[in-house]
Amino acid sequence: MIVQRILHAILAVMMIGVVAGGCATVPISGRSQFNLVSDEQANALGAEAYRNVESESRLIKSGAQYDQVLRVGKRIAVAANEPGFQWEFCLIDEPKTINAFCLPGGKIAVYSGILPITKDDAGLATVLAHESAHAIARHGSERMTDQLAIQLGGLGLQQLLQEKSPAMQQVAMAAFGVGTTVGVVLPFSRAQESEADHMGLVIMARAGYDPREAPLFWRRMMGDSDGAGVPSFLSDHPTDEDRVQNLETWMPEALASYHP
User: Fold this and answer.
1) Residue 234 in contact with residue 64, Cβ under 8 Å?
2) Cβ–Cβ contacts within 10 Å for residue 142, how many?
3) Which of 68-77, 147-156, 247-256 bottoms out in mean pLDDT, i.e. has the lowest?
4) What does pTM read for this prediction?
5) 40 counts as catalytic
6) Residue 4 confidence (pLDDT) above 60
7) In the chain, which ranges are continuous DSSP H helix?
8) CA-CA distance, 125 to 75, in Å (whole number)?
9) Annotated catalytic residue: which of 48, 88, 94, 131?
10) Bridge-based pairing state of the strands 59-60 and 100-103
11) Where are the alpha helices (DSSP H) in 61-161?
12) Which DSSP state fits 35?
């Protein structure tokens, strides 16, 4: 059967990954993780995506805001202590976009719309440390590995339902899609966001920025969240209240690393 051959091929790939890659430990949080995607593959994808962002965006390449992004970004990069990363920073001229991101390998983009909320270097350090933590923790590779496991489960379900009516198969596969999204993908994403909050708090402290500024920044962000009205169990981010409360819980650890 074609489905059986696909299942066997995916299982073989996963077993090779287990033997070759094994488990890794996320810095700072200490969580064990397993990725099928190598750093070389992820970093190459990150670099390609970053080049596309640069070519398709209106970039700010001079001025006080640009200098601030470079200044804070370089300090965060040193504190991140990832010698295999080739760090790059860009500032995108989109005043209405409140966002920033870090691609695998240390490629950071900041939208100008977030700067009025960060206000100062410490606020910007909160954002850049959080985003860099996603790359340091290999969250992108982890999500790709997770999606492979979900696809494997879907193929297995199809195999089990091959004797059922087409209508029954359609209903079951639809339920499987909802179940994996709500039960696996979104909680996993929220866990990654919380881990990035934790790691980012420590990283910004190591870079010499006061971690007590982080909860203040997130409180400023509360009024600008585009996820208002979305139930927390269907959100890919922690609730604002949970985020601030967690930061206060991790604060003693961050302050122990803080040397102005």
Assistant:
1) no
2) 22
3) 147-156
4) 0.75
5) no
6) no
7) 2-21, 39-56, 64-80, 115-118, 121-136, 139-160, 166-180, 186-206, 213-222, 240-256
8) 9
9) 131
10) unpaired
11) 64-80, 115-118, 121-136, 139-160
12) -
